[in-house]
Design a protein that fits this description.
This protein has an eight-stranded parallel beta barrel with strand order 1-2-3-4-5-6-7-8, surrounded by five helices. It has twelve helices and eight strands. Helices cover 41% and strands 15% of the residues. The N and C termini lie close together (9 Å). It is of the alpha/beta class. α1 runs parallel beside α2 and α1 crosses α12. The radius of gyration is 17 Å and the shape is globular. The structure holds phosphoenolpyruvate. Phosphoenolpyruvate (PEP) binds next to β8.
């Protein structure tokens, strides 16, 4: 982390777990476990139908609400889709785009990820853009090449001014939900490479200011070591964000 230049963010990704009615008691349990004042930006991303309750009950804990996906379209005949405007209207501050589960199960490609990020920026919602390599790519030593391609594609057409409201999350696919975490060296190497790509695209100052998160089986035990790396500015946390004690411990790990 480098608090001097960029925001530290701990963001949970609840995926398709919990229900809107459970948020109140989750927050009541979380509140006494969180340090005060809060040491970083704390975000919980949920399915769109739960965002409103997250806004309502997260306020007391100073937890910002995020969504997990958005439509690339602004409005119209797209049955089942949720627009950035709708998310903004119910108070979403962040939204994940390009999560590997959406890339894998919904065939989302880099162009679509880019379009979704732009749709969010347009409505002043901060996209958390996920990138990450597969195990095969890592084993073939293609990690940096592939991540470079993904970052460039995701940020295509996004200006330096807009980049100030963008977060990148490095999430190696092989580490998501598997209990296998990247070592802090592996995570740092890729996060540093991502910053390097951004430096080439936008220059030194925007690269220094962009928050880059690590995600992939981050938990209460390994968070401190990962967050101690100079180019890791926070975490995107799946499983451990569903447990109040673990999530609070990860938030506290930013206090080093
Ligand atoms: C995720 O889904 O973004 C994630 C990092 O999950 P987990 O922490 O469970 O690996």
């Amino acid at each position: 982390m480098n608090r001097r230049y960029r925001k530290t963010i701990i963001a949970g990704n609840w995926k398709m777990n919990m229900t809107a009615s459970g948020i109140k008691s989750f927050m009541q349990e979380l509140k006494p476990l969180l340090p005060s004042p809060k040491p970083c930006e704390i975000v919980l991303c949920t399915p769109a139908v739960m965002v409103q309750n997250m806004v309502k009950f997260g306020k007391d804990c100073k937890v910002a609400a995020g969504a997990e996906d958005v439509s690339k379209y602004e409005k119209g005949a797209y049955t089942g889709e949720v627009s950035a405007d709708m998310l903004k209207d119910i108070g979403a501050k962040y939204c994940i785009v390009g999560h590997s589960e959406r890339r894998q199960y919904h065939h989302e490609d880099d162009m679509l990820v880019n379009a979704k990020a732009k749709a969010l920026i347009e409505k002043n919602i901060i996209p958390i853009i996920c990138v990450g390599e597969s195990l095969e790519q890592r084993e073939m030593d293609l990690t940096i090449e592939y991540i470079t391609y993904q970052v460039k594609a995701a940020l295509s057409g996004i200006t330096a001014a807009q980049l100030r409201h963008v977060v990148i999350a490095y999430e190696p696919i092989w580490a998501i939900g598997t209990g296998k975490t990247a070592t802090s060296e592996q995570a740092q190497e890729v996060c540093c490479a991502i910053r390097g790509v951004i430096r080439k695209m936008y220059g030194a100052r925007p690269a220094r200011s962009v928050s880059i998160l690590y995600g992939g089986s981050m938990n209460a035990k390994n968070a401190a070591e990962l967050l101690a790396q100079p180019d890791i500015d926070g975490g995107l946390i799946g499983g451990a964000s569903l447990k109040t004690a673990d999530f609070a411990t990860i938030v506290k790990a930013t206090m080093q």
